[in-house]
Amino acid sequence: MITVRVREHGPLEQWPEFKPLLGRSPFQRHLHHLVTQGITRVAIVPMNTGGVNANNNDLAGVIDAQRQGLSASPPVLEVIDASQMDRWVGQVLMMPASAVYDARLYQVVHASPTMVRLVDGADDTGLARLDRDALLTAVSNGSSGVASTANQRISALDVATLPRYLPALRRHLRPWWCHAASDADRDRAAHRLIDAAQKGVLDFPARYLHPWPENLLARAAAATDITPNQITVYSAVIAFFGTYLFAIQYFLLGLIIAVIAGILDGVDGKLARIKLLSSPFGDRLDHSLDVSFEFSWYIGLGWGLSQATGDGDALWAGCAILIVMIIARALCGVYRLITGHQIHDHTAFDRGVRLVAGRRNIYVLVWLAGALTGNLLAAFYMTLSWALATVAIYAARILFALIMKRRRHNRASALTPE
To answer: The domain containing residue 96 runs over which residues?
Structure first.
């Protein structure tokens, strides 16, 4: 059940619940996350806070328009009065439409076998799982919300006690929530949404240099109809243009293009997470194009340098970098098969290696420094050495993982009675 606060002024479309926040209104965000929890029925209950009655027909029209803006099929929606709630049975999720929640909070509240209200220290977040009696009390209390219905049967779950690690983003992030009613609240919610879209374990440029321009671009794109897949394609076109510039020996311009492509490569994923548009197809498209233009850079730059300097080995160095990078990707897969963990995020050592390991973004900075100092060819050969060193570290990690796995197996065998 989603509660909507009735307001005296402004058209319904401009109420905070329905007003876009980085491309998706708080109400649409609720529907998206409820769908992921398998919820098939959602009731919208207007809450009278100022002696004003909501026109349910008008409200239903706005809600239907909001529903059409979602890519996923939303649950069955109905606008009901508080007086109609006494026919509900079982436990119900309740949340204010004008708040924004971390996806994990819906999951933990929905999974609770008993009544629970989500708190953040002394603050009541408004998200709860209640039975019919507690729900009726909460609705009748109006702005007092769930906190005023608290009794011994409703346990309080503090956000601060929930797990913080996000495997998909490879980072620790405290589960968050935010009001989105006032302009100041909406600005804070936007910052929370953008921060929550940032991946954690990355190479040095992507971790420390790219986020600022990525966030600006993602925030601007969220207010438009542009899709993450379109940005993926645009960035790939720009990146392949960089390959062409390398091949015709416009090295500095090509490297500037490569830096831009690297930044755009982070924008599509952030936009998808911010606007709730992530999809398996988009993920495959992004990774396929990333690999394609990255590998083309090695060949294009090697060819261009061989033509500019007369050093035919530069082209072979480019081919060697490509092969070593393929081996590095294969070793990452082997490590995951052995340990069940990603090699970039298994231990603190691995996270440190990921920061400086041979990767496309690192190479571009090395090449750019070489071009600016007149030593691009030396920088290109340096990246081959960098790639080989990275593969050597990955191979050592795999060997260590095999040794540790063998030791655990031997200890388990020794403890097993014959």
So the answer is: 2-166
Helices (H) and strands (E) in the chain, counts: 14, 11
Instruction: Please tell me the pTM assigned to this model.
Output: 0.88
One domain, residues 123 and 218:
no
In this structure, how many other beta carbons lie within 10 angstroms of the beta carbon of residue 126? 22
For residue range 310-362, what is the model confidence (pLDDT) as tens digits?
999 999 999 999 999 999 999 999 999 999 999 998 899 999 999 999 999 99
Q: Return the sign of the alpha-carbon dihedral for residues 225, 35, 286, 253.
A: positive
Specify the 3-state DSSP secondary structure of 95. strand
- Determine, yes or no, domain membership for 181: no
Q: Are 59 and 17 in contact (CB under 8 A)?
A: no
C-alpha span between 24 and 31 (Å, rounded): 11
Domain co-membership, 151 together with 238: no
- DSSP conformational letter for 74: P
For residue range 394-415, list pLDDT tens digits in order. Answer: 999 999 999 998 888 777 776 6
In-domain check, residue 186: no
Read off the pLDDT of residues 205-223 as tens digits, 9 standing for 90 and up: 999 999 999 999 999 999 9
Residue 380, C-beta contacts closer than 8 angstroms, at least 6 positions apart: 301, 302, 305, 314, 317, 318, 367, 370
Give, in order, the Cα–Cα distances in Å from 35 to each of 77, 266, 332, 352.
12, 27, 34, 37
Question: Domain for residue 269, yes or no?
Answer: yes
Residues 312, 364 within the same domain: yes
Copy the structure tokens of residue 100.
């924004």
CATH number for position 288: 1.20.120.1760
* CB proximity list for 415: less than 8 A, separation 6 or greater: none
Strand ranges in 176-284 using DSSP code E only, listed in sequence order: 177-179
Look up the CATH number of the domain holding residue 60. Answer: 3.90.550.10
Q: Is residue 191 part of a domain?
A: no
